[in-house]
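Entry type: protein chain
Record version: 2
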Amino acid sequence: MEYTHLGSTGLKVSRIGLGAWQFSEAWGITDYNTAKSVISKALEVGINLIDTAMVYGRGMSEQFIGSALKELGVKRDEVVVATKIPGDFLAYRDVFKAVDRSLKRLQVDYIDVMQVHWPPCWHNHPTCEYMRALERLVELGKIGYIGLSDFPVELVEAARSCLAKTDIEVLQVRYNIVERQAEKEIIPYAEANSMTVLAWSPLAKGAVLGKYTLEDLQKISDIRRNDALFHPENYEQILKLANEIKRIAEKYGKTPAQVALNWLLGYSSVVLPIPGAKSPEQVEDNAGAAGWRLSYEDWRRLDEISSSLRITYVIW
């Protein structure tokens, strides 16, 4: 496993993390023992960053992670726990209440990285109100570092202006070899400000692996069923990229997932993918994306095909 530092801090994190959205009804992993086996394998292969959120299973994901780390005997400094507070919970007093509950579910004394999951666009909580609450929790030792998830650069700037004694260290955004909007503003901003970009959905929910034929799309029953990437208009294009990923994977003796994730690692040193995993085998597969690099020619080949895709989100 490769390691880097989180943002401008000295906190050591693996270049491949473990996303934990799958520990919820959304993805169907609601069995604790399955979740524990996934977490155990992640730690075994050198993954030390686990990213979750309060809303994943309405606390289920955090509970599973907390119980698993305790039962596995993991020392607190051996794992970096990142979670997220939703935009609905950002009233000043609610921030403290939500973090207290998150600490209890995770069974920890402090959370390494607390990220705002999305801006409070429905409840209109003032930005400085919740950012100052989070900064207060940093001072009180309950949060190590602050991050923002799914924030445009303008709102990142606004949030940073509210902080007096700390700064944003993490920007989390949907980013994969198909959906590359983050390259326009988010990644350059992170590079310029020594921030880490946590790439969620780094495998495009599996679309780039080419596991399905066009005829199979109707059989999808989980959260991907209504995702634009799995609409025939888009998926037909993605299959061209997926087929090339498979060809390159065979060349290197790697899996398609490892190639797709390695491509992200090669794009920028600040990008840290956090793929989910439903089994220990998938964790091991994801971890194998680190420790090697695609040649420039193969990286460029995938870049060219990806850049030619015309993904639309207007599917109805």
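Comment: The chain has one domain: 3-205+256-292.
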